[in-house]
């Protein structure tokens, strides 16, 4: 006889730090409820989708008052036992509501009552019914002017099957795909969720480059650790062949019929990484990033869970992707700040990937030319395995770095005479130039020449940025925008001028200085359209543009064979920042940007413009390299009792009234917290944002357990505080930004 008295604990997507108990009549369904099952339950005046955490026949509450679930959802979208344990663990670590953590880990369509997308994914391939001659005859019917159709057809090599996300990310359109289908050169099929099985012929041996001695030693050392958990840092200079190390390790994991998760920091790197992997392995590769549709992300999730995807390439949120046969996790550019979620559930993908690898008992490889100081400390202290690649692959050499003293040089459009001459000489050799300015828009401020009024965002008390191409003034802090004004809103004068320079203005000035050369701008504004970034990067590699202007998007792992001159126009902001991490971030950015110069046989040159060329940080970095700088920075951190020599948690509070967040944080922290230090409450450098006044409370301890105990005490205090519903508050464990 079925047991009708089954009680379940359910995690619901609500901002409450608890699970909820429901009962379930097993006689009404043949589908068993297990931890990880998705259920529909009544909550307040609505139905919500939750995830079962535990199933029991006993209940500590009055059973007559326990609500019954409304339904059980399809099992394809369920989590497994490992995921339930993993997500519960990180909910406790980050002190974040368990239901919101589980919701973050589920694709959007699995949080809906009736997703219609649990069906196979459509894909396309060359028409297998055509002989080689028939294929050539049909191809000849394509007009010579239809360059994109021909390029798309060439994209389908051999028996390769491509999904729409892969086609779109390569820069092709539905119209071009349909044109080839109409000519019967391609056919449509579906990818089924069959468990992937590796075959040796799916390796393309001829594509392997010759390894250096260092690469061989690193691969051999990590390959000996593939059967259990171990964490490895590959600290390799730009161009040293870290990706080849990943590829050869991945090959060994695929030979064991296991899956690999590869995390990259930027959406822009996924097409490049995908191309590199598909040239090497004829295996199913899935993508996961925010530019995909909800359906596309769900399909990646399902293929990974079922084992039909051998390799998953993902950005930050892909760390939650389930795997049937996990074998290895790789995190490329592990130092990158985009692995840290800065709102809502503030997790760090690198850190929880390490936790997940430990739980799965599989190895994880962290790679960077500029490792985060915390990571470097863990490697040097023996917590992680430490591997170095100190030589560039092939014949390429590291670029020389030269500081330009802007206090002594005459400048035009933010460029010194030395830099302009170097640009002219580089372009004359048919080589490319990359100019780095981490400031979007045309100009960061607009002011009145009569009364010195500044056009500020009233919600943030910060200047609007002028985006001249769009005719907009945009606040880069809260996102508010308005049309460009024609006169001063204080005195009525029309004598308005811009202050400072952004990438949009720099591109315009370069077109004026070098009209015979093509320039291109790579930033968030110029790459908003789907497929646009991949298209622009291909144009750069095809040498269609000689002058590249970009923000930090261009500093992240892109390979430009013909770029021999790189210039960083302004680094001074990071030299005197409130944030103790600012020097580290600046050093990483400088080294990463410098790595874009001279990647093959051509020698590169890097110019860094600064008002402070004698600054010890710049001198150390230029003369001794990142490794020496990092050791010095770690010594400073130790002396100042900063991470990684202490552990931090940041409480943020904000409200419409300026006094409320300060009072709230002061009240909850008026307790004894043992081995912890409190700093604050204090306003951050930017006190007002999006109309809210903000205060911070920093908790710091040499002992991680003591820190978590203190955070628990403070959150317990919050639950009892009368202002808890009048302020918006959050907890950030291991914060990366203290100035926001």
Query: What would the principal axes of the Cα set say about the shape?
Result: globular
Secondary structure: number of strands: 35
CATH superfamily of the largest domain: P-loop containing nucleotide triphosphate hydrolases
Write down the CATH class of the largest domain: Alpha Beta
Total number of helical segments?
19
Strand content: 15-25%
> How is the biggest beta sheet arranged?
7 strands, parallel
Give me the secondary-structure category: alpha/beta
CATH topology of the largest domain: Rossmann fold
The neighbouring-strand order within the major sheet is: 11-12-10-13-14-9-15
Give a quick summary of the entry.
This protein has 740 residues and is α/β, with parallel strands linked by helices. Helix 4 packs across helix 6 and helix 7 runs parallel beside helix 8.
What does this structure look like?
- By secondary structure, the chain is of the alpha/beta class.
- It has six domains: 6-111, GIY-YIG endonuclease (3-Layer(aba) Sandwich); 121-191, no CATH class; 200-387, 3-Layer(aba) Sandwich (Rossmann fold); 400-441 and 502-639, Rossmann fold (3-Layer(aba) Sandwich), CATH 3.40.50; 445-499, no CATH class; 647-733, Alpha-Beta Plaits, CATH 3.30.70.
- It has 19 helices and 35 strands.
- It has a seven-stranded parallel β-sheet with strand order 11-12-10-13-14-9-15, sandwiched between helices.
- The chain is globular and about 85 Å long.
- The termini are far apart.
């Amino acid at each position: 006889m079925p047991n009708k008295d089954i009680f379940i604990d359910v995690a619901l997507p609500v901002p409450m730090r608890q699970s909820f108990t429901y009962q379930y009549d097993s006689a009404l369904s043949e589908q068993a409820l297990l931890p990880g099952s998705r259920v529909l339950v009544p909550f307040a005046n609505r139905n919500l989708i939750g995830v079962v955490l535990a199933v029991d026949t006993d209940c500590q509450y009055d059973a007559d008052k326990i609500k019954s679930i409304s339904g059980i959802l399809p099992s394809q979208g369920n989590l497994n036992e490992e995921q339930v344990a993993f997500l519960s663990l990180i909910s406790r670590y980050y002190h974040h509501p368990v239901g919101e953590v589980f919701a973050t880990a589920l694709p959007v369509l699995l949080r809906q009552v009736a997703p219609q997308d649990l069906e196979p994914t459509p894909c396309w391939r060359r028409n297998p019914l055509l002989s080689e001659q028939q294929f050539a005859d049909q191809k000849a019917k394509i007009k010579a002017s239809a360059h994109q159709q021909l390029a798309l057809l060439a994209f389908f090599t051999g028996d390769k099957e491509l999904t729409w996300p892969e086609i779109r990310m390569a820069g092709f359109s539905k119209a071009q795909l349909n044109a080839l289908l109409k000519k019967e050169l391609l056919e449509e099929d579906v990818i089924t969720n069959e468990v992937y099985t590796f075959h040796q012929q799916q390796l393309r041996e001829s594509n392997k480059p010759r390894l250096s001695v260092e690469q061989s030693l690193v691969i051999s050392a990590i390959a000996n650790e593939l059967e259990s958990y171990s964490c490895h840092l590959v600290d390799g200079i730009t161009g040293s062949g870290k990706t080849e190390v990943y590829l050869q390790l991945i090959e060994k994991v695929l030979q064991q019929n296991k899956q690999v998760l590869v995390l990259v920091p930027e959406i822009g790197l996924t097409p490049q990484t995908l191309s590199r992997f598909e040239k090497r392995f004829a295996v199913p590769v899935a993508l996961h990033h925010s530019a995909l549709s909800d359906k596309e992300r769900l399909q990646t999730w399902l293929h990974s869970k079922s084992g039909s995807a051998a390799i998953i390439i993902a950005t930050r949120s892909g760390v939650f992707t389930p795997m049937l046969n996990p074998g290895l996790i790789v995190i490329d550019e592990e130092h990158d700040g985009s692995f840290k979620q800065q709102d809502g559930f503030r997790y760090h993908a690198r850190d929880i990937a390490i936790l997940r690898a430990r739980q799965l008992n599989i190895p994880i490889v962290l790679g960077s030319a500029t490792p985060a100081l915390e990571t470097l400390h863990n490697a040097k202290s023996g917590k992680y395995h430490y591997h170095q690649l100190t030589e560039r692959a092939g014949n390429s050499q590291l670029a020389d770095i030269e500081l330009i003293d802007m206090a002594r040089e005459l400048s035009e459009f933010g460029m010194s005479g030395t830099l302009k001459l170097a640009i002219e000489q580089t372009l004359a050799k048919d080589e490319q130039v990359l100019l780095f300015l981490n400031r979007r828009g045309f100009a960061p401020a607009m002011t009145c020449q009569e009364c010195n009024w500044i056009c500020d965002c009233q919600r943030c008390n910060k200047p609007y940025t002028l985006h001249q191409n769009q005719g907009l003034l945009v606040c880069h802090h809260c996102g508010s925008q308005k049309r460009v004004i024609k006169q001063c809103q204080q005195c009525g004068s029309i004598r308005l001028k811009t202050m400072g320079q952004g990438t949009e203005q720099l591109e315009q000035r370069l077109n004026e200085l070098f009209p015979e050369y093509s320039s291109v701008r790579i930033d968030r504004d110029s790459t908003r359209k789907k497929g646009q970034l991949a298209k622009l990067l291909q144009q750069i590699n095809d040498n269609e543009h000689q002058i590249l202007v970009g923000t930090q998007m261009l500093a992240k792992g892109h390979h430009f064979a013909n770029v021999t001159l790189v210039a960083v126009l302004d680094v001074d902001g990071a030299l005197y920042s409130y944030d103790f991490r600012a020097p580290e971030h600046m050093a990483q950015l400088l080294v990463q940007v410098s790595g874009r110069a001279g990647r093959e046989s051509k020698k590169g040159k890097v110019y860094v413009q600064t008002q402070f060329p004698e600054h010890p940080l710049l001198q150390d970095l230029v003369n001794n390299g990142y490794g020496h700088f990092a050791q010095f920075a770690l010594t400073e951190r130790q002396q100042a009792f900063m991470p990684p020599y202490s552990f931090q948690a940041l409480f943020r509070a904000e409200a419409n009234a300026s006094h409320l967040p300060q009072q709230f944080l002061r009240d909850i922290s008026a307790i004894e917290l043992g081995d912890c230090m409190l700093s604050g409450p204090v306003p951050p450098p930017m006190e007002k944002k999006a109309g809210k006044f903000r205060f911070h409370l920093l908790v710091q301890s040499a002992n991680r357990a003591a820190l978590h105990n203190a955070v628990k005490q403070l959150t317990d205090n919050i639950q009892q505080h009368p202002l808890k519903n009048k302020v918006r508050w959050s907890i950030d464990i291991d914060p990366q930004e203290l100035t926001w």
